[in-house]
Structures are given as structure tokens and as C-alpha cells.
Amino acid sequence: MTKGEAWMEFDVIVVGAGLAGLTATAELADAGRKVLLVDQEPEASFGGQAWWSFGGLFLIDSPEQRRMGIKDSKELAWQDWLGAAGFDRTGDEDYWGLKWAKAYVDFAAGEKREWLAKMGVKFFPVVGWAERGGYLAEGHGNSVPRFHIVWGTGPGIVAPFERRVREHMKNGLVEYRPRHQVDGLLTQGGAVTGIHGSILEPSNVARGEVSSRNKIGDFTYNAKAVIVTSGGIGGNHELIRKNWPERLGEAPQDMLSGVPEHVDGRMLAITEQAGGRLVNRDRMWHYTEGIKNWSPVWKRHGIRILPGPSSLWFDATGKRFPAPNFPGFDTLGTLETIQKTGYSYSWFILTQKIIEKEFALSGSEQNPDLTGKSIPQVLSRVKKGATAPVQAFMDKGEDFIVADNLPDLVSGMNELTGENLIDLKEIERQIAARDRQLDNTFTKDLQVTAMRGARNYRGDRLIRVAAPHKILDPKNGPLIAVRLNIVSRKTLGGLQTDLSSRVLNDAGQPIPGLYAAGEVAGFGGGGVHGYRSLEGTFLGGCLFSGRVAGRAAAEFSG
Is the pTM value of this prediction over 0.85? Predict the structure, then answer.
């Protein structure tokens, strides 16, 4: 406690003011519980990583899908989930993750949309098709589009939960303490009874910017229960490399960050020290289409391209990747393929026609039309030319090269890296071979088949997938090359929890008074996704596990 501060006791303490923490806090206070919400960051970062997100949510058989002619079902979604997850530790580390996965699919096919709608959450009418797979029916990937973009993106999904929490702050049920860094959990008789840590000096940095760790005091708070919702390790590259799995090749030496530096994984070790079990440490989710932000907010700030399926993808030496390593098909499969080349970057080569139709950038700040809920701006996406954020990267970003002909493009690629790995004749041969496949409506090039198949979906044909055309035909230019970097993002493993979000110990028993939700818990059970994500399931996992944890802790502390 700081000098002169009175001892305080709460029903429940929530550690972390991200989406999972806000959801849990709102549920607790709705149940009449007295809650302390602490976070090491200043108030500007209220809402955590979710605020920066594109706001995609995984829903099953939704009205939006049905209006787009998509036939989905819980049975098909569960088939896809199992194919993506590849649960192979079901007797141990995957035991609870599998149960959480089934519960989450039920939630996504059931009350999830209505629950959010009652809080005012609305969705963009065109459903996105993420992680398309490219394998057999029971393999990885979404069989149908399920990526529902929240109207308002990340801030739009944070807003209703922030509103609920702030209402309870006004009525006295929630105490919010930013700049409170938890250093340990209090335990007594095997139960968790509170937290202790350091009060950090006030900071006026903007959202996402690095804040100081200068300590000005200490705190200790007791409670009947503690919920840990502190996020993963995406901003801690040292910890990422420490846990990097051999199956994905060597850990990249150079990597961009898709999350702020405060996503440091501290609470994982702290909770483990209090007896919590950490499982599936080797499972993580990093993107392969990262570009350096020309206007960075945090160190090594990377933005992910959300590509359509038409860009040609080459390794650092100029060899086209084999099927199904196509844009938007299998994130981790392509990550493994890239890392095994010995280089941690790769290339897209495309045309002006492709970038105009197919390039979107992930994140709330890169989609001002959707974030600002501007219908006129959204409609302007169908006009000729790249969107303003994409054009800004073309003009100012160091990873983009634009040229009127292939020799100049290749020269620019080699100049950018300084390694002279790209051979003009080899690149020309491969692109020309692909272009010949467009002379007929049938083809043996599976990427061309996938492009044509995508355009059978009305949403892709309207705003997402360019009409197939020859890359080397000057009328489709100019030509564009984009250097793609690995960008860190999500932790798929975490604290193992049962279906009440209670943290388990090494013996598989719940630790009294200790709960976890969100990324720190692998979005439920210590790994609801298994090895791979179907996308739209990270925010949804925070919402679902946060809701479960809040309601369970409310009952426990009542």
C-alpha cells in the first residue's frame, strides 16, 4: 500500500483491462460484486489489443451469411475447427482446450450474435473469407466465409463493454487502477487471496506507446477471487523465440510486432509461480504478410496485409511457393514454408488491378471508413484506385516497389534487400508460365482455380477478388512488389482452465479463487485453437472466456 492508503478488500480482482478483462468486470459488477480492475498501462490503453484490431468475429449460420447466400451449420463449423486445431494432446494439455472449443462453437452458432446485438453491436454486411485452407474437406481452413467485421472495427467491439464498466465505476461497484503492475499473487492455504505489486509513475503517453516502468510505490489488495486477463507474449520477442517450435523452422531473427510492447507475458510466469499450469507453450500465431508501419506507434510496429488470393507469392530467392501457400489460405503452413527457406521474408508480386481490389490492411487505424462507421467512405472502396491507407503505404512504406516493367521491378527488389537474390529470367519464366494458364477457362494451376472459385462467392466477386488477368500484360499495371515480414501476434497456449475458467494446477485440480480468461488462458482451456486459428476467434475467445470467468467468479464470491 502507498503511504496513507487504507486497506481495501474486494469481492474479485481483475488483472488486465483488455477485452477479456472488461467483459469479466462487466459481468461481475452486473451480478453486484465489488471489483478492482488493475492494469500496468495508463488509461489511454483502456481496452487493450482489441482496440487496435480489425474487429472480426467468427459466427456460424448468421443472418449476414444467409443474405450472402452462404450455407453454414454448426456441424460444418465443428468439422472445420477440428481440422484446423489438430488436437493431438487430448489426454493432457488439449483435454480442456477441446472442451472449450466445443463450447465456443456452440456459442458462435447460438447466443453470441444476439448477446452482442443487445449491446448495440452491428456488422458489416459482407462476410469475409479468412484462412481458406486449400487441403481436403477435413483439413485446415474455413469451408465458407465466417469473418464478420464489427461496424466500428476494434473500437466498436470495445465500446459496449467499456460503457458497461464505466457505468459501474460511477455507481461504485468497480474501482479502476491504471499504472498498477502486478508482481505476484497472494496465496493462503492453497487458495489465491489477492495481488501485490508496484505502482508505476503516471504516464501521459498515447495508446500503444511505450510507458515507463519507474516505480513510485507498492500495493497489496485482498479479494475472494482473482481473474487474470493480461494477454499473451506477442510483444516479447525474446519469449517468442524461447518457445518457438521446431516444426516451424528456425525462429526468425528479424520480426515485426503486431502488438504494443506491453504485451509482455509477465503474468504467465507470475501465475505459474502461484501454482497455475501453463500448457501448449509451443503454439503461437504469427502472420507472414507483415509490412513496416511508415508511421509507427510502437517499436518494430508491423501491419498485416489482408490479401485476396491473386498475388503471386515468392520466397526471398524468387521461387514461387507451392500449393496451397497462397495468400489468405494457411497462415502457419506458409510461415513454416518461409522459415525453412532460411530467410524470414518473402515477396508478393501483383498488379495495380489486384491491389485496388484485394489489398486491405488489418487494424482499426488502417480502416478509417469502417472504424468511423462512414457509409460514403466504405462505398468509395469500389472506386478505381487503392484505398487511402494502402496508397499511403505504396507512397511512403519502405516495403513497396512500383515499376512499369519487370526488369525495373526486380532491380528495385534487389536494391531494397541489398542481397541480389532475385534473378530476372527466373521470375519472368514463372510469371509467364502462370499467365499462360489464363488462356482457357480451365487450368492446372491451383491458385488460378482458387481465384476463380473465390469469385463464385458474391462477397469476393464484389469487393475482394480481382477478375483473373495476366500479370505481365502492361494494361494491368503498373507492377508492384511487396516485401513481406513475419509479424508477431498471438499466443495460442496458456494457463489451463476448466469450463468455469478456474485455473488448474499441475495435478489438474482447480486452484481456489484463481481464474483466467482471454489470451493468457489460450482463449480458454489453455488452447481452444489447438495448432491453428480459423480467424475471428481471438476477440470472440476473449468475449466468451471473459464472460464465463466473470459469471463463475461472481458465483464463487457471492
Answer: yes
